[in-house]
Amino acid sequence: MNRSTQSAGNRASTVLARRLGGDLLRLRDAAGRTQQQAAESINATGTKIVKMERGWVPMRDPDIRVLCEFYGVEDPKSVARLLELAKLDRERRKAKGWWHHSPQAGSMAEYIAMEDVAVGVRTWQQAFVPGLLQTPEYARALAVSEGGWTDPDEIEGVVDVRVKRQARLEGSEPLHVYAVIGEAALRQQVGGPEVMRPQLLHILEQAQLPNVRIQVLPFRAGGHACMAGAFTIVSFAEAGAMDVVHVDTIAATVWIENEAESATYSSFFDRTARLSLAPRDSLRLIESISEDMQ
């Protein structure tokens, strides 16, 4: 578990690189090899292995292949998974997306960069509508309610970030979104009925996209596995492969990066989804709430 982007001097680690480095470290330990031995296998210094295992540097495919052979990794799928992680990390580091020029992206910049190269997200939200489904008016009302703003332009910057993220829902390779939303988030009148009703109608429209699946967890479902808080599972390959989890708390952004913990979040998400209404029934409830919104 880590805060967002971490740094050491002028070296920056990323979520994907830390994930890859951690995997290489576990493989080295399992093989009983030292950092110096690993370094010699790729004709490098021990310092390079330290940087690789801590996610401070992008990693080359030849180095990964040699290290896997040195550590006795014979499964082609395991090697391919590490190579894919390295490729995604290099792409993320090179990306010069719009978020780099948006101060309002703030702590979300790392998440947005991940979202930009992801193939899908599963998100559980119980207090507000997921960012990818928010209207500008809802995003603005939400930002205003958070307080602490001294410049109205900052609020518009936040709204602009939310809107730009939604471009990933369309295009030749759209992001697949599976959102489970607590009923309370749909009934909480952020910005009042004049903002909330169009927001609910927008969710109904977005749900028609083939890459968007929405379910509502109704009040009557009672207790459930995800009551502790909201989170988003980001996927970069087939379902269950290389998932990382983003948890945005009041005080910090946290990434869950190891397979055991991310699998736990996936299990929690699936259990809560099973308690939720089916997609068709969920949309009917959203429509009913919008009609009752006064």
Structure characteristics:
single chain, 294 residues, alpha+beta, 434 Repressor (Amino-terminal Domain), Endonuclease, Chain A, 2 domains, two-stranded antiparallel ribbon, 12 helices, 9 strands, 14% strand, elongated, disordered N terminus
Protein model, in words:
The protein has 294 residues and is α+β, with helices and mostly antiparallel strands. It folds into 2 domains: 2-94, 434 Repressor (Amino-terminal Domain) (Orthogonal Bundle); 102-292, Endonuclease, Chain A. The chain has helices spanning 15-31, 35-41, 46-53, 61-70, 76-94, 109-117, 136-146, 152-165, 183-187, 193-206, 259-275, 279-292; strands at residues 2-3, 6-8, 11-13, 120-125, 176-182, 212-217, 231-235, 244-248, 253-256. The protein has a 7-stranded mixed sheet with strand order 1-9-8-7-4-5-6, sandwiched between helices. Strand 8 and strand 9 form a beta hairpin. Helix 1 packs antiparallel against helix 5 and helix 2 (35-41) packs across helix 3 (46-53). The longest helix has 19 residues, at 76-94. The N and C termini lie far apart (43 Å). 34% of the residues are buried.
